[in-house]
């Protein structure tokens, strides 16, 4: 169990809580329940939590699956620096956000879930985790003509012999296929129908 | 789409029937509460609910997820409906206008006078939150829903693949879910009119005279209600019993002694274990769950069996791919300490069993994924040894894709002896295999790629060369040369 990054689960839980808060809020507001204005708050808080939690942080080890379209929110969340990087801040923030929704039955589920997410974030913070944005990899621009060191000296048809050092393996890269013809191939090549 | 249907027609049919049943049950329950007489007064105060149905199948994981999504959907509908219910009950309780709703709400909760109340909210200043957390239905509902949400958030693909233990242990919250589900309806909060009461004064006749119910000379009396018995246990009883039986059986099986007869360390950090267990029998391509108490008491990991049923032992090949596997390999590498104890559960079946049903089989294995096919090929070898010529299979195409050359050594012997066997029997065309190497060692630094062909192919090949040149950590460069003619 050594390598668990609790923040990743806390993130999923918080995102779910945001959605639950929004749903409960809509039900309470649309149904004009008693004290429905807590429902209105719940919708706003839910939207905020969803936006904050949507960009997934980078894992310490291994590759991270980005959520679709998260790069836009990543740039916004990145701007707040330590406020969004630090998980203690998130734990406290979520706990505070969850409290007002606890006054209404329709949104109390959101409160419970967000409070749990806050607890998991606290655990993550205690273990020293923090939120790192996933940056897009810079694409190396291929230089035109840079890959051609010298023009091919041997026009086809030509034997593939010089390139092959290990005759027991076949390589999947497309090489110029040995054409038929009157020339003797150093390595017998059979064309097997697959 | 057409091909998909042909291959999966049974699953599609089953799903259609299951969905149809779900819809039927939902509509049936809905109509019951919407139309039936005993719920006439209940309807006057409020709304309704729904149920779900569960079953187990061979494509169990996909089905499990589908059922889970259904449960989530119905849970959401159920909760939202009850939220509206409670709000209306609350308003009815607080109404002072002498309406039907307020009179119904004032029916007594006193057990001595019959306890024939309709509105679960007893007093005017009782909040819905109070009722939620002090009634069995409300409390179990909250516990169940939180358990469900935690199970779902820890079961997303990302969490499952990256931190399996979080998913596995959290998923055991299902115990609370099922227990809660069983006792959820015990309180009988949903009330219907009693038979007696309907006979004395049918709602269609008496409802409009509600203002006179108190009068002694009114032919209608106060209606009386009783709680509906809980029904969820009827749905979950059979699956729960089946599940408990299965767990007991698996526990018993795992307690049987496993004797390790041979341990082989292959290159590329692959460990082969050959074992024996009393009463163990397998088919090709099946898998077992393995537990090693000295590494982790509670973790069970699945491994495909690489031995053939004809052999007198069973074997697995384990590749180092995480904490548990690395610790296991390290434990077996210690030459001077005793071999760790292993527990085995299984075998369990998978699709590879069907390979002998087809005339032509195409087997594609990537890296350690080749294991079920190793079992199949070995089995074929034994079948030919025993001159079993009744095999339906006439041709096998085997594609094995590996990252390193060392990986091929695992089944090197098997492949060569199979080839020899085929030649001896004159069945040269039976087994065709292609091995593909996707990695390259650091001795190769420059690869020239030459193409003579159509432009579109040149474009994608050039893209591949650029992609693999820049990202590969071992700094191999592919130089793409295209010739124009």
From TrEMBL, chain A:
<feature type="transmembrane region" description="Helical">
    <location>
        <begin position="12"/>
        <end position="30"/>
    </location>
</feature>
<keyword id="KW-1003">Cell membrane</keyword>
<keyword id="KW-1133">Transmembrane helix</keyword>
<keyword id="KW-0479">Metal-binding</keyword>
<protein>
    <recommendedName>
        <fullName>Cytochrome b-245 light chain</fullName>
    </recommendedName>
</protein>
<comment type="similarity">
    <text>Belongs to the p22phox family.</text>
</comment>
<feature type="transmembrane region" description="Helical">
    <location>
        <begin position="103"/>
        <end position="124"/>
    </location>
</feature>
<keyword id="KW-0813">Transport</keyword>
<keyword id="KW-0560">Oxidoreductase</keyword>
<keyword id="KW-0812">Transmembrane</keyword>
<dbReference type="GO" id="GO:0016491">
    <property type="term" value="F:oxidoreductase activity"/>
</dbReference>
<dbReference type="InterPro" id="IPR007732">
    <property type="entry name" value="Cyt_b558_asu"/>
</dbReference>
<keyword id="KW-0521">NADP</keyword>
<keyword id="KW-0472">Membrane</keyword>
<keyword id="KW-0408">Iron</keyword>
<keyword id="KW-0249">Electron transport</keyword>
<dbReference type="Pfam" id="PF05038">
    <property type="entry name" value="Cytochrom_B558a"/>
</dbReference>
<dbReference type="GO" id="GO:0020037">
    <property type="term" value="F:heme binding"/>
</dbReference>
<dbReference type="GO" id="GO:0046872">
    <property type="term" value="F:metal ion binding"/>
</dbReference>
<comment type="function">
    <text>Subunit of NADPH oxidase complexes that is required for the NADPH oxidase activity that generates, in various cell types, superoxide from molecular oxygen utilizing NADPH as an electron donor. Subunit of the phagocyte NADPH oxidase complex that mediates the transfer of electrons from cytosolic NADPH to O2 to produce the superoxide anion (O2(-)). In the activated complex, electrons are first transferred from NADPH to flavin adenine dinucleotide (FAD) and subsequently transferred via two heme molecules to molecular oxygen, producing superoxide through an outer-sphere reaction.</text>
</comment>
<keyword id="KW-0349">Heme</keyword>
<feature type="transmembrane region" description="Helical">
    <location>
        <begin position="36"/>
        <end position="55"/>
    </location>
</feature>
UniProtKB/TrEMBL annotation, chain B:
<dbReference type="InterPro" id="IPR017927">
    <property type="entry name" value="FAD-bd_FR_type"/>
</dbReference>
<keyword id="KW-1133">Transmembrane helix</keyword>
<keyword id="KW-0812">Transmembrane</keyword>
<dbReference type="GO" id="GO:0042554">
    <property type="term" value="P:superoxide anion generation"/>
</dbReference>
<dbReference type="GO" id="GO:0016175">
    <property type="term" value="F:superoxide-generating NAD(P)H oxidase activity"/>
</dbReference>
<dbReference type="InterPro" id="IPR017938">
    <property type="entry name" value="Riboflavin_synthase-like_b-brl"/>
</dbReference>
<dbReference type="Pfam" id="PF01794">
    <property type="entry name" value="Ferric_reduct"/>
</dbReference>
<dbReference type="InterPro" id="IPR013121">
    <property type="entry name" value="Fe_red_NAD-bd_6"/>
</dbReference>
<dbReference type="GO" id="GO:0006952">
    <property type="term" value="P:defense response"/>
</dbReference>
<protein>
    <recommendedName>
        <fullName>FAD-binding FR-type domain-containing protein</fullName>
    </recommendedName>
</protein>
<feature type="transmembrane region" description="Helical">
    <location>
        <begin position="12"/>
        <end position="31"/>
    </location>
</feature>
<dbReference type="InterPro" id="IPR039261">
    <property type="entry name" value="FNR_nucleotide-bd"/>
</dbReference>
<dbReference type="GO" id="GO:0043020">
    <property type="term" value="C:NADPH oxidase complex"/>
</dbReference>
<feature type="transmembrane region" description="Helical">
    <location>
        <begin position="166"/>
        <end position="190"/>
    </location>
</feature>
<dbReference type="InterPro" id="IPR000778">
    <property type="entry name" value="Cyt_b245_heavy_chain"/>
</dbReference>
<feature type="transmembrane region" description="Helical">
    <location>
        <begin position="66"/>
        <end position="84"/>
    </location>
</feature>
<dbReference type="InterPro" id="IPR013112">
    <property type="entry name" value="FAD-bd_8"/>
</dbReference>
<dbReference type="Pfam" id="PF08030">
    <property type="entry name" value="NAD_binding_6"/>
</dbReference>
<keyword id="KW-0560">Oxidoreductase</keyword>
<feature type="domain" description="FAD-binding FR-type">
    <location>
        <begin position="247"/>
        <end position="354"/>
    </location>
</feature>
<dbReference type="InterPro" id="IPR050369">
    <property type="entry name" value="RBOH/FRE"/>
</dbReference>
<dbReference type="Pfam" id="PF08022">
    <property type="entry name" value="FAD_binding_8"/>
</dbReference>
């Amino acid at each position: 169990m050594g390598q668990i990054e609790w923040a990743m689960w806390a993130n999923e839980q918080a995102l779910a809580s945001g959605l639950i808060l929004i749903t409960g809020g809509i039900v309470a507001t649309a149904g004009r329940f008693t004290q429905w204005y807590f429902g209105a708050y719940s919708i706003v808080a839910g939207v905020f939590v969803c936006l904050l939690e949507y960009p997934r942080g980078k894992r310490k080890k291994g590759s991270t699956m980005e959520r679709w379209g998260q790069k836009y929110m990543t740039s916004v969340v990145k701007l707040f620096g330590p406020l969004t990087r630090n998980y203690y801040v998130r734990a406290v923030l979520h706990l505070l956000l969850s409290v007002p929704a606890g006054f209404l039955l329709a949104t109390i589920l959101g409160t419970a879930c967000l409070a749990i997410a806050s607890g998991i974030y606290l655990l993550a913070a205690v273990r020293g985790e923090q939120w790192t944005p996933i940056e897009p990899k810079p694409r190396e621009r291929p230089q035109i003509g840079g890959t051609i060191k010298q023009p091919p000296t041997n026009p086809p048809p030509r034997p593939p012999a010089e390139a092959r050092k290990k005759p027991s393996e076949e390589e999947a890269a497309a090489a110029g296929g040995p054409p038929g013809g009157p020339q003797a191939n150093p390595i017998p090549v059979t064309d097997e129908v697959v | 789409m057409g091909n998909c249907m042909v291959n999966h027609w049974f699953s599609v049919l089953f799903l259609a029937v299951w969905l149809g049943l779900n819809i039927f049950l939902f509509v049936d329950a809905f109509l019951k509460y919407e139309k039936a007489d005993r719920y006439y007064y209940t309807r006057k105060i409020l709304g309704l609910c729904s149920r779900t149905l569960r079953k187990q199948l061979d494509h169990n994981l996909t089905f499990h997820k589908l059922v889970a999504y259904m449960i989530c959907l119905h849970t959401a509908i159920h909760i939202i409906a009850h939220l509206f219910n409670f709000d209306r009950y609350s308003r009815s309780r607080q109404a002072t206008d002498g309406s039907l709703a307020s009179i119904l709400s004032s029916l007594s909760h006193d057990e001595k006078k019959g306890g024939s109340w309709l509105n679960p909210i007893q007093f005017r200043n009782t909040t819905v939150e109070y009722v939620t957390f002090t009634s069995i239905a409300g409390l179990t509902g909250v516990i169940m829903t939180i358990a469900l949400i935690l199970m779902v958030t820890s079961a997303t693909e990302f969490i499952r693949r990256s931190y399996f233990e979080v998913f596995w242990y959290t998923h055991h919250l299902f115990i609370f879910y099922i227990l809660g589900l069983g006792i959820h309806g015990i309180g009988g909060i949903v009330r219907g009119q009693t038979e007696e009461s309907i006979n004395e004064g049918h709602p269609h006749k008496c409802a409009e005279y509600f203002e006179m119910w108190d009068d002694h000379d009114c032919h209608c009396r106060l209606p009386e209600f009783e709680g509906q018995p809980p029904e969820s246990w009827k749905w979950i009883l059979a699956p729960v019993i089946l599940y408990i039986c299965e767990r007991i059986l698996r526990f018993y099986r795992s307690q049987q002694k496993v004797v390790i007869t041979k341990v082989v360390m292959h290159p590329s950090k692959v460990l082969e274990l050959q074992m024996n267990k009393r009463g163990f029998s397998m088919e090709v391509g099946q898998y077992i769950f393995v537990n090693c108490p000295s590494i982790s008491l509670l973790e069970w990991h699945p491994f495909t069996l690489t031995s053939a049923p004809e052999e007198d032992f069973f074997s697995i090949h384990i590749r180092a791919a995480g904490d548990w596997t690395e610790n296991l390999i390290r434990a077996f590498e210690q030459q001077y300490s005793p071999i760790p104890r292993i527990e085995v559960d299984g075998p369990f079946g998978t699709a590879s069993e069907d390979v002998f049903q087809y005339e032509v089989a195409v087997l594609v294995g990537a890296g350690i994924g080749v294991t079920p096919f190793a079992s199949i090929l070995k089995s074929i070898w034994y079948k030919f040894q025993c001159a079993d010529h009744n095999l339906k299979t006439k041709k096998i195409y085997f594609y094995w894709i590996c990252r390193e050359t060392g990986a091929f050594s695992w089944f090197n012997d098997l492949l060569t002896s199979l080839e020899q066997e085929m030649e001896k029997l004159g069945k040269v065309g039976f087994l065709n295999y292609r091995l593909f190497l996707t990695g390259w060692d650091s001795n190769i630094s420059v690869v020239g790629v030459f193409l003579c062909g159509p432009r579109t192919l040149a474009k994608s090949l050039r893209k591949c060369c650029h992609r693999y040149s820049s990202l590969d950590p071992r700094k191999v460069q592919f130089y793409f040369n295209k010739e124009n003619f």
